[in-house]
Recover the amino acids of this structure.
């Protein structure tokens, strides 16, 4: 997927890369639910992430990042609804996910 | 040795019957013979359909099996409720509940069949001809042949076996079946007296009179029900009637119309007539013909099929038995019996299984019913309905599984605080769950609900966390003298000590604490201490804790004006929060403000009923860095005082102002307030002018002399209060729809607006993401915004 945003503005998708090399391609709008990612990808910021559309997280492993990506989709899909069932979070992932969520400002 | 064999055939499948036959006809192990081959005409049906399973050759082999088995056992006892002896449909189940083979001695066989619901086991000898009627002469011959065949295969191959015991037995049996009841007793009598005694011994161990009586009772009731109904019930259809229809070659059977227990001859005739009539009707019906055409050719027996249809249509009544539509087991029908989708009935066990399968769906439903309440509760907590953020989801999951957690790892302190708050809200902090918060390296611990902790748990805290600096306990009831003594004996030097509800720490322990550990104290918060912590302790603080920056004494019953004066001697104080139950007056507060007011960042006085404008003036004169300000429940401060406070005040704008219940208390005519007591229009405008820019929290509830115009001016279009997040304007009569609208417009970041008791707020448009609490309408108290800006009643 072309991640450069040289040609007419931003690409629709961004790539999230975990510490163990897993890549998750997510809608830019969905990923920007996270304050941290939003700031990373802000075109005004001139971070390398903003130029390439790739965010590498050295402290989040693939399993946790997958859950994070799932949450982005869940949030994006239900953004206009009020009566939303909570997303299931496996208890064993809970702590790591909490750290990641805190880091990502989600 | 007496051997017996008990067999429960209540759910016998055809395959089982076949295995039984193999077992019964196998030669003894020592006789090395070729394996038994099933007879040529034995075709165990692969289909489990009871319709097929009930074909007569199968019954015949079952009987043969029984005969063979009697060779090895002195006595055997077979209980069955299935379709062994009927040939029609599964619904016309047999009425034989028990087939008992009598005692056998050597070569004598007698089989007794005791119909269910007849005279019972107690009167088994008085059997009648009909008990044996299921054996037609032809079948008897078959039976003989089979047993003989078995004999031939085994060690005695001679034809003289024709005279062998088993043949003799069976012949005798079939003969006895045809003879009169009186003569029938002979085989039993001919059996050895030893065997008879064995049987009676065995019978005495069988279910006692109650069973018999119940059987009799059921039979009687069934008979009565049948007599009063046009058609007989499924469960009642005796095998005899079935036989009569399905095996017309049993001439004697057809002639002597089978009588039901307790039924008169006339009743029987009537019943049979009605049965025949309805069967004829079924035969004539178009749907029946079509069904036959579809199922099989015309060559099959029409009578059989018609009877099957007839029996299917008659549903069993409560207190009768039916076969389960799922497992085909027989069970008693009750009013609670569940019907299957196909029309049959389901036994309790299968119904339970079905319930389990449908369980999740049902539970889902229940979840939805509680949903509304949850949403309402969340709204009151200020949680906007919708998607929770990931942190909240994680923290909630974590709190849900707190029992499984061993430690929280290196989570940031804010997260740990969140987990602790949720656990406490759910009242889950116990001795066990406390452990996850006790982290040796950490210097702070907050327990929002320590009500379930014992004094040992509090002591444990100091043992686990030797470097503890900041300790906060709410509901720390058992934080008593023992714990305090332990704390004094440790090296723990607290900088922050916040204790709530510890009314078991006595004054002398407080003194010791302040003397021994007070020098390190930077913040001391003491709530709800009932009879302890009074003026003496406040006086001690001056000497023991000169570095104190934060002092909070709340819900205190002992402190008086005299004690308050000591606070002014703490030079480093930045935060003062006081809620004293005794009546306190202005002078000590003025004294405090004059001495330490300059650096004060928090000044909160609750329930100060009689302090006057001198306090406000002292604040105006002294405070230069105030950020949080509260004076509540007062009836002496005047509007002029507030105006002078907020006008030309050299203090940066505040972020938190709570002036609720600063109003005139006069019940004679509440609307007249000539002296402008309390926070009124001008004071409010001055407040908004001074602090509006940075204000985050504003509470002016019950300040009912703030006019509508004043609100309109304060929130007029063009002004912008970017920081305001929560506003409480309950019981302010000036607030109406337009004011609420203006507030929403001028406070873009507002989250919660509380308007209890404002009856002019009726129909207001609430922007998305904001919560309006307290609208007095018939549907509820909240209006919550939707995207298009149209208010919606929740």
């Amino acid at each position: 997927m072309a991640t450069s945003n040289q040609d007419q503005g931003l690409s629709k998708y961004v790539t999230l890369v975990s510490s163990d090399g897993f890549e998750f391609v997510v809608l830019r709008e969905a990923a920007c639910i996270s304050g941290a990612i939003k700031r990373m990808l802000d075109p005004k910021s001139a971070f390398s992430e903003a130029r390439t559309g790739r965010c590498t997280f050295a402290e989040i492993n693939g399993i946790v990042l997958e859950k994070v990506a799932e949450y982005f989709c869940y949030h994006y899909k239900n953004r206009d609804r009020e009566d939303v069932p909570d997303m299931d979070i496996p208890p064993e992932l809970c702590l790591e996910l909490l750290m990641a969520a805190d880091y990502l400002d989600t | 040795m007496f051997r017996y064999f008990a067999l429960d055939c209540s759910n016998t499948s055809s395959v089982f019957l076949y295995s039984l036959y193999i077992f019964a006809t196998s030669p003894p192990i020592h006789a090395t013979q070729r394996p038994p081959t099933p007879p040529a005409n034995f075709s165990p049906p692969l289909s489990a359909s009871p319709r097929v399973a009930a074909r007569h050759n199968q019954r015949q082999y079952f009987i043969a099996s029984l005969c063979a088995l009697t060779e090895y056992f002195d006595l055997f006892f077979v209980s069955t409720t299935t379709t062994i002896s009927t040939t029609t449909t599964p619904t016309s189940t047999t009425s034989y509940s028990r087939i008992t083979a009598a005692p056998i001695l050597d070569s004598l066989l007698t089989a007794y069949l005791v119909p269910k619901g007849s005279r019972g086991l107690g009167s088994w000898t008085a059997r009648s001809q009909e008990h044996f009627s299921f054996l037609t002469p032809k079948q008897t011959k078959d039976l003989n042949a089979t047993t003989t065949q078995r004999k031939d295969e085994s060690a005695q191959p001679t034809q003289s076996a024709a005279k062998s015991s088993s043949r003799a037995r069976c012949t005798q049996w079939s003969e006895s079946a045809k003879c009169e009841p009186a003569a029938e007793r002979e085989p039993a009598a001919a059996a050895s007296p030893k065997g008879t005694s064995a049987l009676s011994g065995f019978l005495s161990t069988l279910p006692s009179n109650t069973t018999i009586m119940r059987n009799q009772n059921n039979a009687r009731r069934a008979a009565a029900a049948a007599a009063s109904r046009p058609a007989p019930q499924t469960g009642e259809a005796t095998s005899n009637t079935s036989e009569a229809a399905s095996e017309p070659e049993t001439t004697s059977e057809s002639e002597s119309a089978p009588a039901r227990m307790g039924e008169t001859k006339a009743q029987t005739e009537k019943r049979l007539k009605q049965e025949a009539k309805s069967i004829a009707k079924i035969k004539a019906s178009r749907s029946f013909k079509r069904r036959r055409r579809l199922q099989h050719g015309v060559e099959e027996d029409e009578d059989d099929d018609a009877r099957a249809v007839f029996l299917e249509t008659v549903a069993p009544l409560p207190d009768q038995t039916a076969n389960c539509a799922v497992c085909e087991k027989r069970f008693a029908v009750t009013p609670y019996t569940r019907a299957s989708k196909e029309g049959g009935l389901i036994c309790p066990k299968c119904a339970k299984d079905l319930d389990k399968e449908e369980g999740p769906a049902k539970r889902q439903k229940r979840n939805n019913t509680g949903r509304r309440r949850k949403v309402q509760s969340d709204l009151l907590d200020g949680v906007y309905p919708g998607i929770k953020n990931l942190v909240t989801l994680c923290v909630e999951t974590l709190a849900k599984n707190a029992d499984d957690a061993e430690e929280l790892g290196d989570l940031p302190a804010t997260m740990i605080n969140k987990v602790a708050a949720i656990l406490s809200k759910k009242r889950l902090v116990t001795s066990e769950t406390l452990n996850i918060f006790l982290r040796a390296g950490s210097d702070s611990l907050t327990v929002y609900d320590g009500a379930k902790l014992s004094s040992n748990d509090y002591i444990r805290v100091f043992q686990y966390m030797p470097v503890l600096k900041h300790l906060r306990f709410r509901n720390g009831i058992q934080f008593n003298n023992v714990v305090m003594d332990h704390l004094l004996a440790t090296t723990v030097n607290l900088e922050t000590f916040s204790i709530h509800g510890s009314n078991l720490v006595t004054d002398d322990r407080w003194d010791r604490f302040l003397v021994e550990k007070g020098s390190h104290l930077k913040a001391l918060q003491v709530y709800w201490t009932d009879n302890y912590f009074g003026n003496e302790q406040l006086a001690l603080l001056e000497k023991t804790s000169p570095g104190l920056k934060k002092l909070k004494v709340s819900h205190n019953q002992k402190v008086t004006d005299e004690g308050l004066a000591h606070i002014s001697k703490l030079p480093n104080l930045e935060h003062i929060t006081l809620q004293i139950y005794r009546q306190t007056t202005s002078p000590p507060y003025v004294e405090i403000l004059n001495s330490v007011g300059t650096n004060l960042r928090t000044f909160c006085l609750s329930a100060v009923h009689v302090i006057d404008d001198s306090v406000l003036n002292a604040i105006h004169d002294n405070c230069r860095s105030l950020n949080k300000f509260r004076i509540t429940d007062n009836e002496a401060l005047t509007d002029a005082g507030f105006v002078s406070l907020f006008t030309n005040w050299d203090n940066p704008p505040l972020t938190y102002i709570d002036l609720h219940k600063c109003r005139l208390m006069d019940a004679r005519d509440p609307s007249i307030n000539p002296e402008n007591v309390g926070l009124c229009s001008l004071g409010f405008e001055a407040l908004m002018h001074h602090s509006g820019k940075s204000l985050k929290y504003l509470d002016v509830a019950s300040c009912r002399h703030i006019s509508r115009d004043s609100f309109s001016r304060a929130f007029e279009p063009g002004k912008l209060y970017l920081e305001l997040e929560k506003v409480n304007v309950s019981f302010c009569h000036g607030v109406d729809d337009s004011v609420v609208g203006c507030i929403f417009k001028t406070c873009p970041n507002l989250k919660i607006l509380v308007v209890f008791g404002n009856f002019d707020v009726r129909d207001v448009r609430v922007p998305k993401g904001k919560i309006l609490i307290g609208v007095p309408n018939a549907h509820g108290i909240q209006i919550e915004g939707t995207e298009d800006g149209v208010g919606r009643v929740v």
